[in-house]
Design brief:
Layout: E1 2-6, H1 11-26, E2 30-36, H2 40-45, E3 49-53, H3 66-87, E4 94-97, H4 102-112, E5 116-120, H5 141-170, H6 178-187, E6 192-194, E7 211-213, H7 229-236, E8 242-244, H8 254-268, E9 272-275, E10 288-291, H9 296-299, E11 305-308, H10 312-320, E12 325-327, H11 334-343, H12 358-370, H13 372-386, H14 390-398
Parallel strand pairs: 1-2, 1-4, 2-3, 4-5, 5-6, 6-7, 8-9, 8-11, 9-10, 11-12
Helix pairs in contact: 1-14, 3-5, 4-5, 8-12
Length: 399
């Protein structure tokens, strides 16, 4: 089968689909991943076809308020929609759509008569079990959570409105707003497979048929890939270090974060590995190493704890490695994942990014590294995650 996976956003929004795509390819399917040009090397390393999606050039990961995020998201998806139709190759037999691309992909599927399946990294359907992942962790009660979930979907419809209007015009389709298209998908019980672990989010009992949680899709790592020599040397030089990184978040905050990280590590008597990321973290010293991008799957099993921004991918990587964590959520769905991670017992209570200090981080580091309850909970969750087969579940759903 010729399959096109469409995904867009930050690295954490795209990398899991390289693992899913590689698994589908190994099962005999012809798989292409459509995403923005920045991630072409990841896609090609996984042995997948690549199709470029347009994206607005901008500094990713800045700390913004909710209104600014909404405006930035609308601009992003409008640009995305303008070139989305060109990414679908003739002969494509199935569209696998991320939560970011689904509201555009449904219209392409209508125009080209191609079936679709949702492959989401976040739970987006309303439920009484928890509030929408973009509204933090405070529960409004079961009825209130469902109301808030429907409100969040309406806000997403507003973000996609201009992009959908332009795309349908380009495809010569009659006008149809994103809300009505979304309701059509729900009435048809269109399948949506969620690529996260039930250790973090069990399937809500009030979800409709067709919504399933299948387990994590791990980013592709080539079998021959190894840690750089300087990292191996640092790991061998002393006790297990703490990993500290914020991924594509916190652009422009590197100097502050680097100072906080080093002060906290030394106050707690620990060594550290700092991942530069979009923030540009950096530090010098025999007890601290600064690195660029390294696959989490190779590094995390070798560290004592992980301090991270609680993106869905990094959250899963730390838990899957059986390593305790200190979540420092920045924005968007990160408070949600930070709360879910803490609820497993494998992480401390989240430290909001705006409240992060060296003193708070050092205190949390001391607890998470020296109190074995965190490591035991992480180990239990990791064993649970190892029983899940996210790629196999997708293959089974595709028949």
């Amino acid at each position: 089968m010729r399959i096109l996976i469409a995904a867009a956003g930050s690295r954490g929004d795209v990398a899991p689909y390289t693992g899913l795509g590689a698994g589908l390819r190994e099962a005999g399917h012809d798989v292409t991943l459509a995403t923005t040009d920045a991630f072409a090397p990841l896609v090609r390393e996984a042995g997948l076809g690549f199709r470029g999606l347009p994206a607005r050039p901008q500094a990713r990961g800045a700390v913004e308020g909710r209104r600014e995020l909404m405006r930035a998201a609308a601009a992003f998806v409008t640009d995305l929609g303008r070139g989305f139709a060109d990414a679908v190759e003739q002969g494509t037999e199935l569209l696998l759509l991320s939560a970011t691309t689904a509201q555009l992909g449904w219209h392409l599927a209508e125009a080209l008569d191609i079936p679709t399946t949702g492959v989401y990294l976040q739970p987006t359907a309303p439920t009484g079990d928890f509030p929408p992942n973009v509204m933090g962790t405070r529960s409004f009660g079961r009825p209130g959570n469902r109301v808030a979930g429907r409100f969040a979907l309406r806000m997403a419809d507003r973000v996609y409105a201009e992009a959908v209007t332009e795309l349908r015009r380009h495809l010569d389709l009659p006008p149809l707003g994103p809300a009505e298209m979304r309701r059509r998908q729900e009435r048809a019980n269109r399948p949506v497979l969620h690529g996260f672990s039930t250790a973090l989010v069990p399937r809500p009992s009030d979800w409709r048929a067709g919504l399933d949680v299948v387990g994590t899709w791990w980013p592709y790592v080539a079998p021959e890939r190894r840690l750089p020599a300087e990292v191996e040397d640092f790991l061998a030089a002393g006790a297990r270090p703490v990993f500290i990184g914020f991924g594509s978040m916190a652009a422009g905050h590197g100097e502050r974060l680097g100072e906080i990280a080093v002060r906290a590590l030394r106050r707690a008597g620990l060594r550290g590995i700092l991942q530069a990321g979009s923030a540009g973290l950096a530090a010098d010293g025999d007890d601290v190493l600064t690195i660029d991008d390294i696959p989490h799957a190779l590094l995390f099993p070798r560290v004592a704890a992980v301090v991270h921004h609680a993106g869905a991918g990094t959250t899963a990587a730390a838990l899957g490695a059986g390593v305790p964590a200190i979540p420092v959520p920045v924005t968007a769905d990160q408070p949600f994942w930070a709360g879910r991670l803490a609820a497993t017992g494998a992480a401390t209570d989240p430290i909001p990014f705006a409240s992060l200090t060296a003193e708070r981080l050092a205190d949390a580091l001391g607890r998470v590294v020296r109190q074995q309850t965190y490591a035991r909970a992480a180990s239990v969750a990791a064993r649970h995650m190892a029983t899940e087969d996210g790629v196999g579940a997708v293959l089974k759903a595709l028949g």
